[in-house]
Amino acid sequence: MKALVNTATNSLTYMDYSEPVVKFGEELVQVLYSGICGSDMHAFLGHDARRPTPLILGHEASGTIVGGPRDGASVAINPLNGCGSCASCIVGRSNICSERQIISMPPRPGAFAELVSIPSENLLDVPSHSLLKVAALTEPLACGWHAARLGLQPQDTSVSDLKCVVLGGGAIGVGAALCLRAMGVQDITVIEVNPLRLETLHSIVGFTASDGFDANSPLPGTANLVIDGVGFAATRASSCELAKPGGVICHIGLGSADGGVDVRRLTLQEITFIGTYTYTPQDFRDTGAAIFAGQLGSLDWVETRPLSEGQAAFEDIRNGRTAAPKIILIP
Known about the structure:
With 331 residues, this protein is an alpha/beta fold.
């Protein structure tokens, strides 16, 4: 099969690669759409020791099952699975299982390839083949769904009266905003500093877009909920500044591990800081259901490119040359 392999720092090679070995309880999936995630970019830049080269990256995917009784079935891939027996897995929180695995991280090759093997229980049925492109967004949008759900739980104000701010206009941030809207929040602002991407955000229905300095920018200390979809020291500092007393910060982004948290303000103003990692299996199913029912909008803000042009796509994202919140590669 053909695959896009991260062969070295800043280097992706489109090449022939051995087909995956399908283990007991797994299905072979022909990948039709596979999105580029921020974590793929971290690996590409050599910033993720968990993803050593050479490795097939990619974990936001959809496609069709090859062989077996469900041959040809359209599916979205949940790339993460836990051990199934620990306390976290038993209560449905396999995303924090200490033995969790995710495709695109050893020992499991990722979905920037023509084929990928995945446990059957990790496959979500897609009701129509025509929905497979948006189905590839289930994974990143599920991250936003998870954060939105956790961020709304501690609120003591009616959901329709909340003021929410999302930092970052990539697929995680946009997804979080659209999920908040689907959950009943009316006042949502997404802050994005890339002018190309910001222009795209202005055309998406469901939230207000801002560069953080214009008339739409929320004032400090006014947000009931801040979702940081970026995860740098600067965005963590902004989150602490924007949250109102008694507010909540949900931190998704993994841009950098250091700095930015104003612990004194969090303490004095009783601001809740929640780390949110991926999603639970139920979050993934709920996100898929919302996508297929049209509850998250048209989701037409993605750009597609051939898998063979993956190197150029990564470089464009790295250098801020793409207006789309998400680039999806097509094998």
